[in-house]
Amino acid sequence: MTPPRASAPTPFEPPHAGTTFEEPTAVSAPLPASGTVTPAADCIADSAGGLTFDLDAPGAPDASGDWSAALVLRLRGGGEADEVRLPLAPGGEGRLRAVLPSTVALPEGRWDVHVACGDAAPRRLRPGVDDLRALVDRRPGPGTSPLSVRIPYTTKHGNLSLRSWLRAPHAEAGDLRPEAAGLTVRGRLYRAPDAAAWLAGAVAEARCRRDADLVVTADLGPGEGQEFSFTLDWAKLTEHWRGGLDVWDLWLRPADGSGPARLARILDDVVDKQQVFAYPVLPVDAGYAPARATAAYDADNDLVVRIDERPPAAS
Predict the structure, then answer these.
(1) Residue 301's domain spans which residues?
(2) Are residue 304 and residue 189 in the same domain, yes or no?
(3) What is the reported pLDDT for 37?
(4) Among 31, 90, 148, 233, which has the highest number of CB atoms less than 10 A from its own CB?
């Protein structure tokens, strides 16, 4: 699903135009040298957060009967313990199948996908055909167990990887309305024991990455059940701004003192929101200097607000 890009009401470009706001600190390895046969895997997602992988038999023709054949998931930047092995079984038409159920906990991060057979070293898999229709506009059912989200994607080197999220509670960002006075956010809360009770008395928090002591709060507006809304004033976000770039992370904090919920957008099939969702960059009359503000998603699809210096008007 590819949403329309929002048009900006000003000629200002977001900072670092043409690049992403943030890049992962670790990247996947390149594919093997040309001439090496690299198998590909098709992925099918289900609405509960599970994934099914179908691939051609790796290695020897009798690999489908090799009990050691496995799909291997390795957490990028992790250690030896950060590995999940899924048995490969005959899936029909000479293919092999591995299943990653939603009940198998996959910690947050980027997982590189390999195939292993016998004593041969595991090999990276190429992406095949993905069926991610079940992830579009996903509405998880009730429960308090962590919400599992896994989205397969193609790395810049052409490998198959997964982006995994595991969150409870989770605040899914919906409609965003950047306006002259501030940013209005609407969303839904998932995986809280009682969403309406959790939201009663809760507040929205904007936490400044530059200074952990800088926190701006906003009351939640009226909502029904799991729904919430709030408005962050640009004036409050720029009160202590002294030039340069400030990035604010957005959270919901309940009144009962239990764990907060990070605002993010992960319940769809778009693995990298910062490359797809663009919001207006608005001028703000800050006390220190002319500023500009925009909403954005970072490399983890978490919702942030960016405050930066406003370029001088062209003469």
Answers:
(1) 170-309
(2) yes
(3) 61
(4) 148
| b/e per residue 209-248 (b: at least 16 CB within 10 A) | eeeeebebebebeebeebbbbbbbebeebbebbeeeebbb
Q: How many domains does the chain have?
A: 2
Residues 209, 149 within the same domain: no
- Cα separation, 275 vs 154, in Å, equals 14
- Residue segments in the chain with a per-residue pLDDT below the cut of 70: 1-37, 57-67, 314-315
Q: Does one domain contain both 222 and 147?
A: no
- What is d(CA 201, CA 222) in angstroms, rounded to the nearest whole number? 11
Cα gap 199→176, rounded to integer Å: 19
Same domain, 196 and 160: no
Name residue 23's beta-bridge partners: none
